[in-house]
């Protein structure tokens, strides 16, 4: 995992601003087997690939960007497996595109046509569609996907990041809180947990940070990827303790974690 501004500086996977044939080469080659009659001879393969590229990939791509579910449905009704096809050079599926474009209603209908494995497909950067959702902060989109595949929050994306970590780095309070509620924290590695904790504190998401510390006090003095200690980061943020009641809670946590005050 990485921290700092890396997540903000690196886009998870950009949606192309214009459609170019070369961006869809991976998709066209994967679509060659859709119609056995059209692929009867090797000499027809290139023409068939072009047909399916124009008829399937581009239409799905444009439909997702335009939030035109009826157009996408027409394609999917003809080629049900198209929901799992990579339709860009970066191997984004139509779900990746729709989530990145923040098309909530479109995603809801699309997910109904997908199975749990389809939802877990990664693009060439290693990101599933829920990684895009984590970065965007739209909880309803993440909920649609997680309701169908509860393992999604545990599937690591680019650089081994979990969706929860991505949301915390972006400072998306509602998304981070939601993903925290559906991520089995015990199944994360210790380095992942401390990175997530520090990310929550750095993004001023103290309520979840406190809950993490209560559940796993040993994280309080562990160093994250960049050598930062959670409670040292907290000590740099006076706004984290805004009332006597909050102070009492944090002091209790400090005492229970047995953190020497000289270390803060």
From TrEMBL:
Organism encoding this protein: Juglans regia
Pfam families, per database record: Ank_2
Matching InterPro entries: Ankyrin_rpt, Ankyrin_rpt-contain_sf
SMART domains: ANK
Family matches, as SUPFAM superfamilies: Ankyrin repeat
This protein's name: Uncharacterized protein
Domain of life: Eukaryota
């Amino acid at each position: 995992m990485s921290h700092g501004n890396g997540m903000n500086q690196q886009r998870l996977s950009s949606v192309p601003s214009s459609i170019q044939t070369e961006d869809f080469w991976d998709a066209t080659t994967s679509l060659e087997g859709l119609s056995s009659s059209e692929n009867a001879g090797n000499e027809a393969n290139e023409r068939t690939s072009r047909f399916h590229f124009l008829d399937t990939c581009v239409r799905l791509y444009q439909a997702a960007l335009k939030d035109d579910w009826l157009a996408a449905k027409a394609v999917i009704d003809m080629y049900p497996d198209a929901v799992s096809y990579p339709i860009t050079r970066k191997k984004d599926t139509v779900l990746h595109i729709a989530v990145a474009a923040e098309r909530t209603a479109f995603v809801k209908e699309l997910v109904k046509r997908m199975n749990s494995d389809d939802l877990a497909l990664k693009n060439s950067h290693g990101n599933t569609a829920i990684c895009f959702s984590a970065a965007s902060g739209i909880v309803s989109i993440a909920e649609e996907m997680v309701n169908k595949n509860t393992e999604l929050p545990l599937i690591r994306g680019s650089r081994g990041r979990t969706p929860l970590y991505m949301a915390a780095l972006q400072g998306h309070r509602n998304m981070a809180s939601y993903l925290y509620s559906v991520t089995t924290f015990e199944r994360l590695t210790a380095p992942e947990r401390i990175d997530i904790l520090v990310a929550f504190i750095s993004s001023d998401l103290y309520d979840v940070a406190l809950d993490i510390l209560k559940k796993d006090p040993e994280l309080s003095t562990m160093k994250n990827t960049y050598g930062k200690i959670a409670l040292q980061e907290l000590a740099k943020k006076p706004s984290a303790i805004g009332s006597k009641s909050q102070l009492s809670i944090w002091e209790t946590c400090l005492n229970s974690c047995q953190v020497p005050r000289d270390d803060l």
